[in-house]
Amino acid sequence: MNFDDITYKINGCVMKVHNTLGNGFQEVIYQRCLAIELERAGLNFVREQDHPIFYDEIVVGSRRADFVVEDTVIVELKALINLENVHLAQAKNYVVAYDKPIGLLINFGAQSLQFKKVFNSKIS
Q: Which of 9, 24, 77, 104 has its CA 20 to 30 A from that of 110?
């Protein structure tokens, strides 16, 4: 399955969750519901996978992306009134830190569902 197929399936799952719940819930509720939909869609995923963060080849901490789907796509969820540049930067950093080619930043908190696709500039 290629990136477009994977992201298309993820987006379908996200839209199902949003159409069912709407906005106004905490992020963890959307995360749990999205896990159900990803499983129903037959996508392999890991929730909140710990990943070390390196500085000059030294581990300085760790982060957890909400989902790693098909060992290829990072999915970061938000439940905010509006996405800001800091959230986009976080999603981009996760894609690079996890060494994955693509990521999706999804916001359930706005009136309309918000999607942002981010790419790892270090992977051609």
A: 9
